[in-house]
Amino acid sequence: MGIKANKYFIGNTEITATAAEINKLSGLTASTAELNKLSGLTAVATEINRGALKKATGNLAAVDTGGGIFSWANPESGDILIEHVALVVTTKTSAACTVDVGTTSVSATTPSDNLIDGKDINAAIGTFTNIESAGTNGKLMQRLAAGKWVTASVASGASAGLVGAYEIYYHVL
Predict the structure, then answer these.
(1) How far is residue 83's CA from residue 104's CA, in Å, rounded to a whole number?
(2) Is the pLDDT assigned to residue 156 strictly greater than 50?
(3) Domain locations in the chain as residue ranges
(4) In angstroms, rounded to a whole number, what is the distance separating the alpha carbons of residues 139 and 49?
(5) Cβ contacts of residue 152 below 8 Å, gap of 6+?
(6) Residues 6+ positions from 108 with CB-CB distance below 8 Å
(7) Which CATH number fits domain 54-172: 3.30.70, 1.20.120, 2.30.30, 2.60.120?
(8) Sign of dihedral through CA atoms 31, 36, 37, 39?
């Protein structure tokens, strides 16, 4: 440890903590996870670290009823955290069509838009996720109870001609 112009260094790193802040650490027995929670990170970040990222996939369908594009049930014995959902559109719809994707506890045919809200799948082929295509109501992550669903449904237009796949990335909580 060295002193240069009233500043303290360990190696080449300046110590910026005050004496009072350093004294608070004396005798501290908190774990890294507990410190992360105290620093403002949420419990969600801690929960994500508990389980490996899992991936579920399936084909998109050109069906215009609730859950008709796809419907997937949480296969785990407990809650999961949906990290992101991707629609991989390899053939766009033959007419105007927007799709909603979301979690629901009601049924496999219940539309929801809390992951992707109103994504135009007639404009272009591509991979569309709730990270870059969330829309108005879409969120980055959603908790989903065991046996409950992620559904993709036509929000407007018709899905005729649609070909592609879905990918759901999640952690077991």
Answers:
(1) 15
(2) yes
(3) 2-48, 54-172
(4) 20
(5) 60, 67, 68, 69, 70, 71, 87, 99, 100, 101, 116, 166
(6) 67, 71, 73, 149, 151
(7) 2.60.120
(8) positive
Residue 68 is encoded by which pair of tokens? 């008709």
Residue pLDDT, tens place only, 18-72: 666 666 555 555 555 555 444 444 444 444 445 689 999 999 999 999 999 999 9
**Can you give the pLDDT at residue 15?**
73
What tokens were used for 105?
A: 């506890």
Tokens at 85, concatenated: 């959902």
Tokens, residue 42: 């949420």
